[in-house]
Amino acid sequence: MTLGNEPLTIEQVVHIARSAPPGTDYLGRPVSVEVSEAAWGRVRHTRGVIDALADDTVAHYGISTGFGALANTSIPPEKRTQLQRSLIRSHAAGSGAEVEREVVRALMLLRIQTLATGRTGIREETLRAYVAMLNAGITPVVREYGSLGCSGDLAPLSHCALALMGEGWVRDADGELMAAGDALAAADIAPVELREKEGLALINGTDGMLGMLCMAITDLRALVTIADLAAAMSVEGLLGTDDVFAADLHALRPQPGQALSAANMRKVLAVSGIRDSHRDPEACTRVQDAYSLRCAPQVAGAVRDTLDHAARVAGWELASAVDNPVVTLDDRVESNGNFHGAPVAYVLDFLAIAAADLASMSERRTDRFLDKARNHGLNAFLADDPGVDSGLMIAQYTAAGMVSEMKRLAVPASVDSIPSSAMQEDHVSMGWGAARKLRRSVDALTQVLTIELLTAARGIQLRAPLTPSPVSAAIIAALDEVSRTAPGPDRFLADDIAAAVYAVADGSVRHAAESVAGPLN
Predict the structure, then answer these.
(1) Is 212-517 a domain of CATH 3.30.70.2860?
(2) Are 268 and 232 contacting, i.e. CB atoms less than 8 angstroms apart?
(3) Residue 285: band (very low, low, confident or very high) from pLDDT cuts 50, 70, 90
(4) Considering only 1-5, 174-178, 435-439, which range has the smallest mean pLDDT?
(5) CA 346, 350, 356: angle at the middle one, nearest 5?
(6) What are the DSSP calls for 471-502, one per residue?
(7) 61 carries an active-site annotation
(8) Would you indicate the residue range of the signal peptide (predicted)?
(9) CATH 1.20.200.10 residue window(s) in the chain
């Protein structure tokens, strides 16, 4: 993958972040990155601009001054390289649990992309070392807390810059914890001695929160299709109607995502023996299904449209050169506020709200299956022998607990701000925190939807001898390859749920559906 010609795409960020270097990923695709010759030319040119200011008596932020509230402190020339080292060492102050490897790789890749724009004043040798570190699979240890989402993701990026200096801790390509200096030596990478402006160039960016946004968009796009599949199977198993998913009805409200979800649900419910069994309006006394069934496309569709908005924001950010100060196209070195994470933080929070609502509707359908008063003739809790067996009673508890957690995670981080740096940085975005909680929300959504799929699969099978749609049958078969969906006496459920979650996350369930239905939205 070559950087420096066009902005990275969301898909490229996720590919590199989740690959297993060095070499190729599990599909044989290359995982290395390189910088274009045109970009190297820009890097060399703007470094010349910075070098010309190195001995200037006029104050230039981060070149001849301190940082943050110390911006008015003049630094003499003989201490300016120490200034950059001190910046990274002091800012590598993260605390808490280790951040996931894919998050660190994403933020490294995105910082490299910004450095390759030639707007930061980085030296060529520093950027080459950073690229080599990423390609070698060296992953700096980054801690959970340390970024306020303003002045960039300072602590996370500082831990990466510290590793580039040969200090701190990293994990090698095999995941082994080791000293950064040893890892660089093993990869034949010389530690970097930072020069003027380079410390700032390495840490002033929204790269961590942006990387997590790219991964969340990717995961949620896959999960919203799973939500359509689960909802359609619930409609089928609960003897609901597919009439409300007709294309002409959804055309009356031209929300684009809604139409896509309704089309998915129509594909799942096509040729269903269960649905055909109650198509006669004289035999079926139900006039309307509950909202969690009838309005599923409206909610999932709104999630789709929210994802499209988030993707637009991510695309704009991926096309940005975020640094402070920045070298402009006409070679001015200017302070700015582009490092503020508000645009990214807002959509991270928005996605957490959307994910929580999608999960909330899913859990309501699961609960409806288990309630004998509402499941239209099925056993209480879908148990084999209610009373002796509890069926899926506690699986619903698990889903409810996660939905409750997701509602708490949906409280926006971006409305909070704690001033820092002696009130110089008096308003911050908390975008890193928004991204961290969204990752937990995406994981919970995967599990909530999986529990609905397992519940719907059992409910559908309890309708025998009525036959499900071919798509539902294919999904049930895919789940049965890793867990058990068939009715029967109580069994240990946790392993079944975990295996089914994996089948959802790795695409097996969607693939099974598409093998019958064709491409899904």
Answers:
(1) no
(2) yes
(3) low
(4) 1-5
(5) 150
(6) HHHHHHHHHHTTS--S--S----HHHHHHHHH
(7) yes
(8) none
(9) 212-517
